[in-house]
UniProtKB/TrEMBL annotation:
Protein name: Bacterial transcriptional activator domain-containing protein
Alphabetized InterPro entries for the sequence: TPR-like_helical_dom_sf (IPR011990)
Record SUPFAM superfamilies: TPR-like
Upper lineage: unclassified sequences, metagenomes, ecological metagenomes
Length: 79
């Protein structure tokens, strides 16, 4: 559970996730998924403006009708 992680470790992991997502965007700049993950990882660090810009780019690149959100909706209980 991420709530049990040391706050400094959690920050370092989030920063590494942003760097990894940025590399993925550079490798596939016309693919919406890396842009979406970059947006989400930036938001996890509180980089809201950057996250929103990346989300908008992901929406521009996504297939028509594809709904993209900064955060995934929570899943309810199975059953």
């Amino acid at each position: 559970d991420s709530e049990e992680l040391d706050p400094l470790l959690r920050l370092r992991l989030a920063e590494k996730a942003v760097r990894s997502a940025a590399l993925a965007v550079r490798a596939a700049p016309s693919d919406y998924e890396p842009w979406l993950w970059l947006a989400r990882t930036q938001a996890s660090l509180g980089l809201w403006e950057q996250g929103e810009r990346c989300l908008e780019r992901a929406k521009e690149l996504a297939p028509t009708g594809q709904r993209l959100e900064l955060f995934e909706p929570e899943k309810g209980p199975a059953g």
